């Protein structure tokens, strides 16, 4: 298991430099130092046996749409391979609970585990509260995902949306 490797505990600070942003506009993202990808930055990656569409492939940064990364056939091995060269990931259009499948949630949780364990910054851009989706995970997995989401800085487009998400994650 890659998580059993010994490492300096400061590596998690890079993960925590990222944010969980709810209902952000492009202008809001710019204040976070995140600019929306240009269509010319899009690439199809094949880290192992699965092709994954990335909205941005830039030195050190990957940007994925949630559906392309989490609602398609990807695996932890794909995330591990991509984590070797990209120390900042953005996952956008994370749906609210009603739009998230259990399989998408599981892949999101696996992605977050890899990024957290490798000290990779994650900016998670959500369209709404997805905390109810955590009910589809076993309790230990849900608690781990909750802890990792709480490590991210919370940013909101609407204070109410972020408060609902935080309350849901902490429930």
Q: In terms of topology, how is this protein built?
A:
Layout: H1 12-16, E1 19-22, H2 26-31, E2 43-45, E3 52-54, E4 56-58, E5 61-65, H3 66-70, H4 76-83, E6 88-94, H5 102-117, E7 121-126, H6 139-151, E8 153-156, H7 159-170
Parallel strand pairs: 1-7, 1-8, 5-6, 6-7
Antiparallel strand pairs: 2-3, 4-5
Q: Roughly how many Å apart are the termini?
A: 30 Å
Give the helix proportion (percent range): 25-40%
Give Rg in angstroms. 15 Å
Structural class: alpha/beta
Topology pattern, helix = H, strand = E: HEHEEEEHHEHEHEH
Keywords, please?
171 residues, alpha/beta, 6-stranded mixed sheet, two-stranded antiparallel ribbon, 7 helices, disordered N terminus
Structure explained in plain terms:
This protein is of the alpha/beta class. 38% of the residues lie in helices and 20% in strands. It is built from 7 helices and 8 strands. The chain has helices at residues 12-16, 26-31, 66-70, 76-83, 102-117, 139-151, 159-170; strands at residues 19-22, 43-45, 52-54, 56-58, 61-65, 88-94, 121-126, 153-156. The strands form 2 sheets. A 6-stranded mixed sheet has the order 4-5-6-7-1-8. A two-stranded antiparallel sheet has the order 2-3. Helix 4 (76-83) packs parallel to helix 5 (102-117) and helix 5 (102-117) packs across helix 6 (139-151). The chain is globular, with a radius of gyration of 15 Å. Residues 1-9 and 158-162 have low confidence and may be disordered.
